[in-house]
């Protein structure tokens, strides 16, 4: 087995971060806070790990998300067709500003709060199913039975995705986030399937609009203002639908799973939360700080030579900002590797910072809060089933999460 020193020496992201992310980050912050690494696809990148550097870089307008500013041969992330690639994760202002303004109204804290009752009904239904299948006592994989179906139901209801397609979309997402080296064509097949799915879904919504976000976005596209001002192109419409569904599902699944794991591994914190559930909204901030779903922010490309820390990164090279490393930086969060629901976790970077701050953050927070509230109320004897060392993490730098979370209740 490689040591942390070995992992730093060879510079490959996937070798160290998947198995021992926080140990590697601790070492990097102290010895090489802006470090030359090899990206997941074998191409070069710069990895930034200190809180102050990451926070400043997240808000730096000289670090572009637009892949057109990348040098040939650098790490660029997902390779998607244009109809799925024209999304907020690849855009700078003014296009980013225009599209975010069009969709942002659906994800305000006030609008999201209106989803509280429907989300709780979904959580209760899923727990009802557990009770039906297992009786008063049972065992299950909490990811498959609860953490995954809850957010996919919520985001699909919000967008207006028919029930019969939800399982397919979850399978496609899993393939994209954690590609199987033994099936190199699977990711391409998933992209083709998703493109066909969204093409048909938009056509169906145009024929029969409904009271859902996707129908509203189609109306903006078809009936909106002047092209380039308050209107979406067809590729932007489809890409936005893809991003909302993909990100709205994937990140929340992982956050619910790691939050439950953290509580089960820290029974004193679990007991304190059970004793005072009103602490849940603040607790969510510590969950995302301590072990959030995103190890890295979306890659960036300097528009000109940029100094980060004491390193000058040439224009066009790839910069990877480690949100997870920043959130465990003891310079910002004392005793940062300790899970503590009593700490002030505000200021964490798990959901980003600056103009690219996570659009769906209010929804992710609310879903996690409700998911945990329902578990605390209805499964008082929830415990890990087996040795924590046997838990398996998905082999992905895009979304840190458990493949399964076996529990008894």
Q: Can you give keywords for this protein?
A:
Cytochrome P450, Cyt_P450_sf, Cyt_P450, Cyt_P450_B, mainly alpha, disordered N terminus
Give structural notes.
By secondary structure, the chain is mainly alpha-helical. Helix content is 51%, strand content 8%. It has 18 helices and ten strands. It has helices at 4-10, 13-17, 21-31, 51-58, 82-85, 95-104, 109-113, 116-134, 142-147, 149-159, 166-177, 186-207, 213-223, 234-265, 267-275, 280-291, 323-327, 361-378; strands spanning 34-38, 44-48, 63-64, 139-141, 301-302, 306-308, 311-313, 319-321, 383-384, 406-408. The chain has a three-stranded mixed beta sheet with strand order 1-2-8, with helices on one face. Strand 6 and strand 7 form a beta hairpin. The longest helix is centred in the middle third of the chain and has 32 residues, at 234-265. The radius of gyration is 21 Å and the shape is globular. The model is unreliable at 1-10 (pLDDT under 50). This is Cytochrome P450. Belongs to the cytochrome P450 family.
- Beta-strand segment tally: 10
By DSSP (H or I, 4+ residues per run), the number of helices equals: 18
Beta-strand residue percentage: 5-15%
Most strands sheet: 3 strands, mixed
SSE pattern, N- to C-terminal? HHHEEHEHHHHEHHHHHHHHEEEEHHEE
Mass-distribution shape: globular
User: What gap, in angstroms, lies between the N and C termini?
Assistant: 35 Å
Low-confidence stretches: 1-10
> Percent of residues in helical segments?
40-55%
Instruction: Output the structural class.
Output: mainly alpha
Rg value: 21 Å
């Amino acid at each position: 087995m490689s040591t942390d020193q070995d992992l730093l020496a060879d510079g490959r992201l996937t070798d160290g971060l998947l198995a021992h992310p926080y140990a590697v980050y601790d070492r990097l912050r102290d010895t090489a806070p802006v470090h030359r690494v090899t990206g997941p696809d074998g191409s070069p990148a710069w990895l930034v790990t200190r809180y102050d550097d990451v926070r400043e870089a997240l808000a730096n307008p000289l670090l572009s998300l637009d892949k057109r500013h990348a040098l040939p041969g650098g790490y660029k992330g997902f390779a998607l067709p244009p109809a799925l690639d024209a999304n907020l994760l690849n855009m700078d202002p003014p296009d980013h500003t225009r599209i975010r303004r069009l969709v942002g109204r659906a994800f305000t804290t006030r609008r999201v709060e209106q989803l509280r009752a429907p989300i709780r009904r979904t959580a209760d239904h899923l727990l009802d199913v557990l009770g039906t299948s297992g009786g008063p006592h049972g065992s299950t994989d909490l990811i498959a039975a609860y953490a995954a179906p809850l957010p996919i139901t919520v985001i699909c209801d919000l967008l207006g995705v028919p029930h019969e397609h939800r399982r397919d979309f979850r399978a496609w997402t899993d393939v994209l986030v954690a590609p199987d080296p033994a099936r190199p064509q699977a990711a391409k097949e998933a992209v083709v399937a998703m493109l066909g799915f969204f093409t048909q879904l938009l056509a169906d919504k145009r024929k029969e609009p409904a009271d859902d976000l996707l129908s509203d976005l189609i109306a903006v596209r078809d009936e909106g203002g002047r092209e380039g001002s308050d209107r979406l192109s067809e590729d932007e419409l489809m890409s936005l639908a893809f991003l909302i569904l993909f990100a709205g599902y994937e990140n929340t699944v992982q956050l619910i799973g790691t939050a439950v794991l953290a509580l089960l591994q820290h029974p004193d914190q679990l007991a304190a939360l059970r004793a005072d559930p009103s602490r849940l909204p603040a607790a969510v901030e510590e969950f995302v700080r301590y072990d959030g779903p995103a190890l890295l922010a979306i890659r960036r490309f300097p528009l000109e030579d940029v100094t980060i820390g004491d390193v000058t990164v040439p224009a066009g090279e790839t910069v990877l900002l480690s949100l997870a490393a920043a959130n465990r930086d003891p310079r910002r969060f004392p005793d940062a590797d300790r899970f503590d629901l009593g700490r002030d976790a505000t200021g964490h970077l798990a959901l980003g910072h600056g103009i690219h701050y996570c659009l769906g953050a209010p929804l992710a927070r609310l879903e996690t809060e409700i998911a945990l509230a329902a578990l605390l109320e209805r499964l008082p004897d929830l415990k890990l089933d087996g040795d924590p060392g046997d838990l398996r993490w998905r082999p992905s730098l895009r979304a840190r999460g458990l493949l399964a979370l076996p529990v008894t209740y």
